[in-house]
Batch of 2 targets.
Target 1
Amino acid sequence: MIEEAQLLQQLKSTNHKEQAFKDLLNLYKERLYWHVRNIVKSHDDADDVLQNTFIKVYKNIDKFKGDSKIFSWMYRIATNEAITFLNQKAKRLQISNDEVQELAINNLTSDVYFEGDVIQLKLQKAIATLPQKQQLVFNMKYFQDLKYSEMSDILETSEGALKASYHLAVKKIEAHLSNN
């Protein structure tokens, strides 16, 4: 397994950039895919967002200062790309962001890549009722089991605020599930 510092050095080197980028893709593409997929819900949309994410990473790797881990930086880009995608979709369809979420959830049942059962679908519907920040925090903690310190780097929010957001999200989801 390649060290992050070594990978970053290779990414910034003209001789090794292509191979280092392939290594970076292999290292993080699945984790980033599921992160994005939890936000946009659709497999096809997640693929589009992920492609845009990796294009941005490739184009901007020279600007990466190393203040955080590459992983955190890439997650931040992926998160922003997913949110931008949803906002653009809402604008294009001339509907609210909440309606975009509802549409995505309703389309999950016809998505051939969705492997969840009735309970998973109910959970996704409950998550969709949360404010966007709470959705992100819940998905990152519940589905990806990220540490609050990692989430803090990615979302640029204090760990305390993230813990509070997660706690509120869990309570709202529990309430939604018990009422529906």
Target 2
Amino acid sequence: MIEIRHLKTLIALRDTGSLVEAAERIHLTQSALSHQLKDLEDRLGCTLFIRKSKPLQFTSAGMRLLQLSDEVMPLLRSAERDLDRMAGGEVGRLNMAIECHSCFQWLMPTIDSFRNNWPEVEMDFTSGFSFTPLPALARGELDLVVTSDPLPLSNVEYVPLFRYEGLLAVAKQHPFAQKHFVTEQELAGETLIVYPVDKERLDVFSRFLMPAGLEPVDTRSAELTIMMMQLVASGRGVCALPNWALTEYLERDYVRSVRLGQNGLWSTLFAAVRKDSLDSAYMKDFLRTAREVSFRTLNGIQPVPIGE
């Protein structure tokens, strides 16, 4: 009566708090997800969550099924890994690099989980601001690259992980702190604090300022996010970062955030993988683990819509 797909649906609904986002996360239409839930409720003879509640609230029956989901799904994942190992899929290499310099908040727990589950897969990690990892991936020197800036490489597949919004961090006393969003023209009048990479690789330039034919008054670089936040808080400039990277500093009331443009500046984070590696069991498991850990640990991210 209760199927694995039902448990996955309930977990997605709990994690996102929204029928729309839950449907996107498990790659269903909202109509199909609603029909699935209604069918399950009819089978069980009870409702599982309160319609139109904000935030979404589960009934006692729904909470019991969520408890079952949290017990069953890890066991299922463990069994799938064991079967993959029995089929000889446990030996391999996973050398990775990141172009997203504030990804460690979710990437490190992902790597820890993966190492525990795939101890015989050799792992290595490369990072650096002067390093260009995507060509190295195409040449076979790397196996996975985390990036928000895909390049058209014939033997590389870009697997979407999640969508995120880039926000502008400003000092609490900055005039922007009272605004809902800033325009390209307003940002052009500021000193922009950035990571030391080519500006074409930064969304705030390539997708916000450059299309408007604008440049900031000045730029200043810093290698660490915490250094950037210290400069912002002391009024030395403003800084564009992913929403999740600012969570800690906003919660501690160090800085304020404002949207880039009226509709916000949204981007997709990808895992770039060579096409000949996509079918390996450990690569599939790493990508699945990365998504799960991301949605469990990060605030403000969204599933990538079907078809994107």
